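If you are new to this repository, start here. Below is one unmodified record pulled from the training split, so you can see the exact layout before writing a loader.
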Amino acid sequence: MRFTMLVAAAVLCGVPVSAQLPDLYTEEMHGDPPFLSQTGWRPLLNGKDLTGWRSADGKPHEWVTTRSVNWKRIFDPKQLTYSSEPGDRIVNGKHGLTSDLISGEKFGDCELYLEFMLPRGSNSGVFLHSHYEVQIFDSYDYTGQLTVGDNGGIYRRADKTGGAPPHVNASRRPGEWQSLHIWFRGPKFDANGKKLSNATFLRVLLNEVLVQENVELTGPTGQHFQIPEASENPIKLQGDHGSVAFRNIYIRPLGAGTAEH
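And here is the target side for that same chain:
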């Protein structure tokens, strides 16, 4: 209903629908994102270019900014379509096989919110501290037993141990914007660099549904960035496992919103 009313209003005003609704029906989210109603959030995308981000391997990459991302369900179901231009969302190139993207800034204990879009069958992930992955995967319509590789899973270590499947399958259809809201506490070290406590995903919401709670990580998950664990490290977005788009990447210190709840 909301989409129909917006289209009708755009037509009556003489505004092209594509300009009024750059992502068509995918613009609609089920609830207001936290950065609109809570204090302390700041964006990690500047709305025009990739300043503040670089390729994890130091090589040229295919990540671009854009104002509109869409999924052509019939004609190109495994890719996203977009125009490379200044914009508030980012895409990992035409084929989804480019370098991982890493933030120039480092973060400690934090609360992270982001939105992502996948085509059919695609795979990505967001790595807190560039070490600990929350899986992004097209798990829509999957009715089997969930694994660490499904959407919202905490991925396993490189030695195939650990990890945590999501509690439920909260995935949306390919081509729809989805959200991850993550509460993360990083590892702690003494003055000599000895680890005192492990990293922990305190809570993870996928599309506003609780999928993880109090998951301790004894070490980095597979495909992590090759830097030592530390009290502060960058964020990494996976770029080489299939097409993915991101928007509205916001962060704030862990506990900044305690008084709001």
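Two things worth knowing about this chain: The first helix runs from residue 2 to 12. The chain has a mean pLDDT of 87.
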